Amino acid sequence: MITQNPSPRKNAASAVLSLILLVWGVGAHAASTTTPRALLDRVAVIVNKDAITEAELDEQVAASLAQQGKKPDPAGKAYKAARKDLLEALIREVLLAQEADKTGVLVNDAEVDQQVSSQM
Predict the structure, then answer these.
(1) What is the number of structural domains in the chain?
(2) Which of 6, 18, 59, 118 could pair with 10 as two cysteines, CB 3.0-4.6 Å apart?
(3) Tens of pLDDT along 26-80?
(4) What pTM was computed for the model?
(5) 50 and 109 both lie in a single domain
């Protein structure tokens, strides 16, 4: 029986197909083992060139409400008010950081510690 060697074109096509199937399988496995939020986080707001994500905002809201001894209830008035206030605070923080970068303002750790101590 005589066998023919497949053409280089068929070998290349077969290799590409195998690679696509391998990558697709790995991607499907990775997608099935991560939460949708981990794959893509929504942007809450863009401040000039920087983005504040929904996850950052939600984390701040949850921490703030926990500090006040309240349960985070996204449908509740306290949650919505905290979310609005904290979003505004995060925007101010990003704007200040951007302005500090632009003007070359540098603050060392001792100055930060001093300010934190004076606020408590």
Answers:
(1) 2
(2) 6
(3) 444 444 444 555 557 899 999 999 999 999 999 999 899 989 888 888 888 888 9
(4) 0.57
(5) yes
